[in-house]
Amino acid sequence: MIQLDEKIYFYLLAIIPVIIVLFALLQLWKKRTQKKFAETPLLKRLSPDKSNFKSGLKLLFFLLGITFLTLGLVNPKIGTKLETVKREGVDVVFAVDVSKSMLAEDIAPNRLEKAKRLVSEIINQLASDRIGIIAYAGQAFPQLPITTDYGAAKMFLQSMNTDMLTSQGTAINEAINLATTYYNDEEQTNRVLFIISDGEDHSEGNTNDAVEKAIEEGIQIFTIGVGKTKGAPIPIKRNGVVESLKKDSQGEVVITKLNEDVLIDIADDGNGEYIDGSNTEAAVELIKEKLLQMDKKEFEAKQFAEFKDQFQWFLGIGLLFLLLDIFVLDKRTKWLKKLNLFNEKEIE
């Protein structure tokens, strides 16, 4: 397991393309200046030992030196020991709606991005709870199993989009049924499911059965609504540009609306609460309070410990490359000159 101490120093690597551009401009200026001074054959006679590739090699050494010194400043650490630690928390599963209706832009930037931001902000407020993520539309897909790795959770969360599931529509029952398989700890009493959606549900009466099954499994269901009740069209984009609006079989523009009633009913039947997701800060604060009020269950988790600094290796390699840049001369090396590895012709 690798841990980076000072990631901000990665910005120093931005100087590398600048140096390359300046080097290219310098070489161009040299060639133009030399042409004004004398013809190429005469220049070769005046400086027969000048190497054609050493300047590029020196630049490579210099850039490698900067790169490794930057990595040294970032200070990578390697976890050398995997140990078991005890934590107390709640098992939380997020079921995120990724149907096409989530592309509606009645809430900025669109419903899906708003949902992802809500989940991300909730994760930021968690301490030692275990989390899992489900993506659902016409069917449900396990995006991330129960874990304590919040970094991985955010990575998988950001990759979610409306094209990840081929089966469209919105079947909330599928998400709830899949969630019941996520809580693999039989002793865990606090099991929470957050459904983040615009409330469109095409699963008809099957949702009630799924909720009842979840209650039997000890799962408390909260719903978070994203969108506006007045509704909005669903844009069809290509390369970030709106080409058209989604239409129904009659050619009419589809208007998708936030269905709070469905989400409220699911939350009430699931012994939870409906939360308005339009205000991210208020929604996250309310969820944080709800989770804090729940009894915590102790469980064991694996994590890396005894992280050891590795900066000295990168600093050493970086200094070595800088020394090579200093001591490598622009003149041809005699033994390399005999080998003629770079096919540099001798001047007679």
Number of helices: 11
Span between termini: 59 Å
**Sheet of most strands:** 6 strands, mixed
Helix share of residues? 40-55%
Strand fraction equals 15-25%
Spell the H/E element sequence: EHHHEEHEEHHEHEEEEEHEHEHH
Radius of gyration: 30 Å
List low-pLDDT spans.
Answer: none
Which strands sit side by side, in order, in the main sheet?
Answer: 5-4-3-6-7-12
Task: Tell me the structural class.
Answer: alpha/beta
Could you characterize what this model shows?
- By secondary structure, this protein is α/β, with parallel strands linked by helices.
- 41% of the residues lie in helices and 24% in strands.
- It has eleven helices and 13 strands.
- The strands form four sheets. The protein has a six-stranded mixed sheet with strand order 5-4-3-6-7-12, sandwiched between helices. Strands 1-2-13 form a three-stranded antiparallel sheet. It has a two-stranded antiparallel sheet with strand order 8-11.
- Helix 1 runs antiparallel to helix 3, helix 3 (54-74) runs antiparallel to helix 10 and helix 6 packs parallel to helix 7.
- The longest helix has 23 residues, at 15-37.
- The radius of gyration is 30 Å and the shape is elongated.
- The model has no long low-confidence stretch (mean pLDDT 83).
